[in-house]
Amino acid sequence: MRTESCFRPARMTVLWIVPVLILTFVCTAAMGADLPGSKDNPLLKRFAGSEIVGYDLKRFDEYELQTSTFKRYNLETTKREFAEPPLKLEGARTRIWYEARGEASSTELIRNYQNELKAQGFQILYDSTQDANATTWNNFLSPFGSIPIKTNRSAYIFFAANEKSIRVTSAKLERPQGDVYVSLIAVEWAGDDATYKARQGAYVAVDIIEVRPMTQNMVVVSADEMSKTIASSGRVALYGIFFDTNKADIKPESKPALDEIGILLKKEPNLKLHVVGHTDNVGGYEHNLSLSKRRADAVVAALTKGYGIAAGRLTPNGVAYLAPVAVNTTDEGRAKNRRVELVPQ
């Protein structure tokens, strides 16, 4: 049987599929009543006849991609554990839950998506249907109960899945502008379920991660704002001076913040400052103490060489993670702790 894939790469490949169960993907709008505000990701279309029942989009997010056998769900860490550590990714993340009502099976869904991915040049990283050890599925779907997602079903709908029906696939597409990863989890329901608002058929959770660096989007603190904050608080914390991980070389995108510090020091010629480097606690105290001092040195060097500020007006200091402004147990907290502060002498 000849089935034409609606999602063609540039070479206009026509996919020949032998198994009778494989159906075509739709190229047009939703076949059912999609969740308001949702849409297909242009990188991957849907299974014919399915509709979007859950949707979430993040411009930049962290993601752990399964590439090996699921072992257990750890209640203490609230993490799924696998035979091999998952791939840790960062980038734009689209999450879509599709519902295919009626006689569709999870195997039918996963095979359709696998063939569609292969037709586009994706490499399959993991396929649970080919994993002889993929038998320990208890609690595999537990994280779905804590995912904040807009849905017209229950947020816990995947808890109602037939455990034996779970099919999982992950895939990768290499691109010059950034690699793309896809995670698929397909499940089935035997019948309608009022509690979870489930309808008989199969569902697939599709996560698409477009790997890319985060665009720095912090508001630059102006010279006047620095002056007012120093006068009222005795210091000002700056997040617009950027360094690569474990390095002390100032990145070019730091220039707007350095410009404002230069303006401040020229407007107030009697102002002398401690330039204090702060880090998170990753890597140990001695390492971070040295790193924070080297970063402060780099800021002082940039201001004296690039803005003509007298070296005697600036004293570099590093305090590692000894003065946190947030907890170091979360990514958000660690980001707040990585900063440069200006403190008057």
Question: How would you describe this protein?
Answer:
This protein is an alpha+beta fold and 345 residues long. The chain contains 5 helices and 13 strands. The protein has 2 domains: 51-211, no CATH class; 223-344, OmpA-like domain (60s Ribosomal Protein L30, Chain: A). The protein has helices at 106-119, 223-233, 255-267, 285-307, 331-337, and strands at residues 51-65, 70-74, 79-82, 87-101, 123-127, 150-151, 167-173, 180-189, 201-211, 236-238, 273-278, 314-318, 339-344. The strands form 3 sheets. A 7-stranded antiparallel β-sheet has the order 5-7-8-9-4-1-6, covered by helices on one side. It has a 4-stranded mixed β-sheet with strand order 10-13-11-12. A two-stranded antiparallel sheet has the order 2-3. 32% of the residues are buried.
Neighbour order of strands in the largest sheet: 5-7-8-9-4-1-6
Secondary-structure element pattern, one letter each: EEEEHEEEEEHEHEHEHE
Largest pleated sheet: 7 strands, antiparallel
| Unreliable sequence segments | 1-31
User: How many domain modules?
Assistant: 2
Share of helical residues: 10-25%
The value of Rg in angstroms is 26 Å
Residues in β-strands, percent? 25-35%
Number of helices in the DSSP assignment: 5
| C-alpha geometry | elongated
Mean pLDDT: 86
Structural class: alpha+beta
N-to-C terminal Cα separation, in Å? 79 Å
- The tally of beta strands, per DSSP, is 13
Secondary structure: elements and pairs:
Layout: E1 51-65, E2 70-74, E3 79-82, E4 87-101, H1 106-119, E5 123-127, E6 150-151, E7 167-173, E8 180-189, E9 201-211, H2 223-233, E10 236-238, H3 255-267, E11 273-278, H4 285-307, E12 314-318, H5 331-337, E13 339-344
Parallel strand pairs: 11-12
Antiparallel strand pairs: 1-4, 1-6, 2-3, 4-9, 5-7, 7-8, 8-9, 10-13, 11-13
Helix pairs in contact: 2-3, 3-4
